[in-house]
Fold these 3 entries.
Entry 1:
Amino acid sequence: MNGLRKNWAKKVAAFVVSAVLLAGASSRVFAKGAPSADEDIKIVKINDDNFEKEILQSKKPVILEISSTSCPPCLVMIPTLIGIAKNYSDIKIASVGIDEPNIEKIKNTLPIQAFPTFFFIKDGRVINQRVGVIKEPELLSALDYTPKPNVAQKAKPKAKKKNAHKNLVCKVDGQFHGLKNLVTISFVFGDSEIENVDIVTDVFVPPDQFDQREQMMEHIRASGKGEVTPTMAGFQMHIDNDCRFMKAMDMKRTSTYGEMRAGLELQGFTCK
């Protein structure tokens, strides 16, 4: 990947950007994706138009995440990425949604085979690559850089303002291995942390593929990623606090209601 900048320039000339809409919710990203001014989560949304400027020409080292709305580990990584973006001003956190339009050049430039995939970039060069759920220290280590915490962190900590107990429900239409789905993620916020996370994915199986439904479900069960049950339209995957998949990911739970809402809306979710 040492010639990433050169390869990118060649591919810009070779490929015409196509606005392919892979997920029904993707068109909402650019209209609703920017977080509100009072919850600036400092994650840069990347597509073919700003990849050169934000990634290859970045003066800061970059952690570039490739995610999918239909990927539970991607959703679980949101609080960790928000935390790094907030606490380390000398690192840029950037995100590409694989279900979104205007990313054809990115997909033809970077080797993307699983989600989430993280590329660690310095001076326009990929120096490392990781796949799957990764804790903050491992992300920083893969970047091969010891960042200086923001000055604000060194100041005397202010008394923590307690969160009112809130519920947050966010939904997005997407794809699961080429099948349409609906992802619903629910949070219960306590005084100082996220008390409960619940992810439900309804997968819609076309009638001509129904004979393969049981095989699909068995594959998911074998992975240990929550419960799988049949539905009239296909099947449903359910992940909650108690499943071993969620426990193994050791989700960071200190993000606020506003941060989680802004992070999910950046990924194309509609929240209430």
Entry 2:
Amino acid sequence: MRDPVWTLRRGGFTPLPPERQGGTPSRFTLWGIVNVTPDSFFDGGRHETCAEALAHAVKLLADGARILDLGGASSRPGAADVPAEEEARRVLPLVRELAGRRGEDPGIPAETLLSVDTWRASVAEAALDAGADIINDISGCAWEPRLREIVSSFRPGYVLMHCLPGTTPGTMQRDPRYANVVDEVARFFESSMAALVRAGLPEENIILDPGIGFGKTAAHNASLLAGMERFQALGRPVLLGVSQKSLFGTLLGLETGERGEATSVCTALLAARGVSHHRVHDVAAARRALVLAEHFTPWRN
């Protein structure tokens, strides 16, 4: 079965040859994380200025990223709320800089796609106006319903992520419970996609993220990863976001900063099962994992 094509408002999202995405095999897409924040769980404070973030973004592209996922407010469990104005102040200059240099700067290829990690309608609207291609929303439009209107109007790529309903980053890890986490996340995807399509966002613009670590225990996360085929059967691409996650701390006793190898192993294992989109901090390591998955898996076309 061929992978579904993910269409973006600026044209078709199509595979690129490895030489045009830093050696990443064509069937895969790497999302490089660029956090312009002081408090993100892994890289908070490392790229706070626009110049630092821009330099990091160029490095991620050289390492094999096709998409840059830009964040101006930490969404880690327990994170403090950041006003929309502050989030916009952090992330919008970077969006404008990257969008303006795309195709003009040799370090920022024309095919680079810009994703903004936000659940706020006003930030999403401003980011899309500034040149972003994708909105990566951890809330599924639940926290600010006007966001559904924004993405339906602009028709960008949209990451529909599952987060435990009725929670926020500050509360999502307080004793999360599910009767069957795989079934509940799958039903969430089905109902949320239907609502987005009714609002005017084409289904082909949607990519699914089961939200590893967002209102889930380590056991919930493991079940979701083991049941990934259930989400792929919904006909949309799946985005895997396990980079440096606490899951590896619970299962392997690894501290933050020691989870790179586990991230790469997980990336290769899920890639071999057909997951084509991977959101990571260390793009070079993920690219190596995907090259191995590409060579060692008996792919069926």
Entry 3:
Amino acid sequence: MTNVPPSGFSSIWSDLRNTAFKQDFLEADGVRTRYLMAGDDTKPLLILLHGVGGHAEAYSRNLGAHAPHFWTVAIDMVGHGWTEKPEIDYEIPDYGKHVLAVMRALGRDSAMLSGESLGGWVATWLAVHHAQAVEKLVLNTAGGWTAHPEVMARIKKLSIEAALDPSWERIRARLEFLMYDKASVSDDLVETRRAIYAQPGFADTMQRIMCLQDMNTRRRNMITEAQYNAIKAPTLVIWTSHDPTATPAEGLQIAKMIPGARYMVINECGHWPQYEKAAVFNKAHIAFLRGESLDGIEGMLS
């Protein structure tokens, strides 16, 4: 008998054990939308947006740190997680309209947006096309600028295989793609995603949400240089040393196109810095959103 946990043990419950939060659903223009919420509605609203094939648990290590400062809401975007999955196109404007509907359902006309991967792409689209709705913007290993066929093919293959056969092995492979340290993928995280992917009909939805991995569809949704140049919201671009979708140099390109944007690279980290390097991410993220100095934060560049 031992009190020593297995090496590398972690769970979403342990991430949230000191956090007052709730899980619930809201109606966003008729789409039943699941969310995780921490903090209270007297504070500035912060909406957290996950990546393609993802879900709100991508932010389980961030809710507690942010709750004292912000009304923090991580959603399952339309077609994802436990949110409703209508038969729509699942292009960037479709996600953007859903996020706007979530804001309205929360009683707000604007929010601070922080998006990872697909979530960053959606947040960028909103900052371009609905500037009044975006108070501050964080782009975290964000999509929308690059189109690497080999990366797109791998994401599509791993995602569709995992949805068609939501076994532990396939779900783990999809999650390990996101991480620099593969041990970051805990059994708890695998089971959380496996349950989502095992929903009846989810394989058909995955085929639809993978449309952005097809080059023609991707290109008509991509953000242009002129659009990045037009972003007015204060912006922080976060990248990582080992992002599997794009290099730090490509992240820097995005930051340079957005007027006044700050840029940082988190080392020894993959596609989920908010999870894999939560302490560094939270420190920089909160400081930026609160308008505090970023000087001296690890990885912060001008």
